[in-house]
């Protein structure tokens, strides 16, 4: 497991208050992890801060699952 | 009650009568205030009067780049923006049949679009803080309409719709979005009216007098306070009974 994956998972666990093992690659923030649409906005904000990157709105919309987020962040950092 | 110590408030249109009174009101409750407006001189004078905790933040709301930069400039000057008061407004009155596209667009830009851009710009900080207050200054004519003011009334009614939608979206984050709708208030804008015009208007006001800028400021202070935390998506009408909505 990569460092980026760990840090990303930690943010998701803390923000959404879900069990760590629920945050799998295919886990959808909204469908599987109980996020509402505003939570997804806040997650993107938290990712931006944690990794010092900028995630534009149109890219943010494509980040639906934990796997999407990790993939995007790995490419951006 | 209504203690705003430790809060930072950005007020647009602070060079005008109502905006200056709002800034004074928030400041008197302990808030740091960011005074925004196009004309620097009255802003400097107001800041001098207020003393500490006042920052002059010039911004031309007709200029999109200026507007987009303002939330960041304000947050840097004050450390945060906990309270945003979208007070700035312009009029370009004309009969609807004679109203130019430019008259329409400029009023919508300053009164409505800039409020949207500023609200969006301060939202990230408010969401993180799990606390925020946005107060949009509308107008009685946004609810009643007024001949010669189709553009102005549309912009003010638009603010109400925007406020309610945003209020829904961010309520769970401790952020409230409300409107204050002044009636006829003594300002430079209404000073231009003739005495005949004024007395004609006053026949429509049960209170029999014009309102004062301070009376708008009090409503803004209330909606900005912790005590108003359960009020969101509301419009507080301050109009002497002119329209009981």
TrEMBL record, chain A:
It is found in: Cytoplasm. The modification O-(pantetheine 4'-phosphoryl)serine is found at residue 37. Keywords: Cytoplasm, Fatty acid biosynthesis, Fatty acid metabolism, Lipid biosynthesis, Lipid metabolism, Phosphopantetheine, Phosphoprotein. The keyword Cell inner membrane does not apply. This is Acyl carrier protein. Belongs to the acyl carrier protein (ACP) family. One of its GO terms (cellular component) is membrane. One of its GO terms (molecular function) is acyl binding. It comes from Boseongicola aestuarii. It comes from the Bacteria. PANTHER family: ACYL CARRIER PROTEIN, CARRIER DOMAIN-CONTAINING PROTEIN. Residues 2-77 form the Carrier domain. Its main location: cytoplasm. GO terms for biological process: Kdo2-lipid A biosynthetic process; lipid A biosynthetic process. Carrier of the growing fatty acid chain in fatty acid biosynthesis. InterPro entries: ACP, ACP-like_sf, PP-bd_ACP, Ppantetheine_attach_site. 4'-phosphopantetheine is transferred from CoA to a specific serine of apo-ACP by AcpS. This modification is essential for activity because fatty acids are bound in thioester linkage to the sulfhydryl of the prosthetic group. Pathway: Glycolipid biosynthesis; KDO(2)-lipid A biosynthesis; Lipid metabolism; fatty acid biosynthesis.
UniProtKB/TrEMBL annotation, chain B:
Pfam families: adh_short_C2. This is 3-oxoacyl-[acyl-carrier-protein] reductase. Its EC number is 1.1.1.100. The active site is at 152 (proton acceptor). Homotetramer. Residues 7-188 form the Ketoreductase domain. Keywords: Fatty acid biosynthesis, Fatty acid metabolism, Lipid biosynthesis, Lipid metabolism, NADP, Oxidoreductase. CDD domains: BKR_SDR_c. GO terms for biological process: fatty acid biosynthetic process. The keyword Lyase does not apply. GO terms for molecular function: 3-oxoacyl-[acyl-carrier-protein] reductase (NADPH) activity; NAD binding.
